[in-house]
Amino acid sequence: MLVDDAPAALLHVGRFSQYAHRVIFVEKKDVWKYVDNIEAIEPWGWDLALAFQLRQAGIPQHLLPPDDELAVLRKLASRHTSAAVLQILKANVGNKALTGESKYVEGLPELKATIAEYGQAVLKAPWSSSGRGIRYVSGELDSLMENWAGKVMERQQGLTVEPYYNKVKDFAMEFSVVNGKVSYCGLSVFYTAKSAYTGNVLTGEEDKKAVLEQYIDPIVLEKVKDAIVRLIGEMLPAGYCGAFGVDMMVVACHSNKQTEPSGFLLHPMVEINLRRTMGHVALSLSSGSTDIKRVMRIDYDGSHYRLHINKIR
Description:
alpha+beta; 7-stranded antiparallel β-sheet
């Protein structure tokens, strides 16, 4: 396992010995010692920067994806792609229990018109992580928000605009891909704070299904899963191996005069994470365990992230 600091990784993994497999931690400066024995590379996610760093560390080119494949993966990882696939997914499933809208805009006039249409809106940079590329707008753009949006569109050629939804529950479906074949791995029920991931529920699949089925018909969830397997499988480069997750959410519906929800809808594609996710980690940590519910959470102290696993009392 490639890490920045092997002694520190060895120290910290000791806290999770009951969950962890025994691995050899390797820093980039020592990769050359193992090159002859490396048969495959399984990164958190591929991009040009990682491929370059591995090449510099001595990994041979035949173990790395070509640049044209990396370009395709970058395009698929964009929220622009998620917005387009959302509409295709809704049309394929064709169920009134689904909701979700996302528009890709390339200039301020189009952005302002879309915000005026939605009233409350969420602006998202095409590429960002940990909630850093997301902003919330109510009514009109102020000067600071307009400046931020202008810079994003200048650097990334556009941004997506979505209506603000009354979210009830965050979750995701996790998948893996081997030689272009997409397989479903399981559900991820997770928590966020200010659009940034903070932790996962660790429990069996039946428990997670029971949580979601309070809001959404299980038949709808199954149809969405099958449609994603088919659609994403058609979009990925031939021979691609890796993991991905699709973030979703349960949305509350309200009639005009009610404060309590009158029903719930499924937003089936908030975004595609074309990489391994913390949901995949949660599935590995909860594999085979259904009797004890735990929470996996991530804390950030300003310089380092810390993983914690606690039982739910």
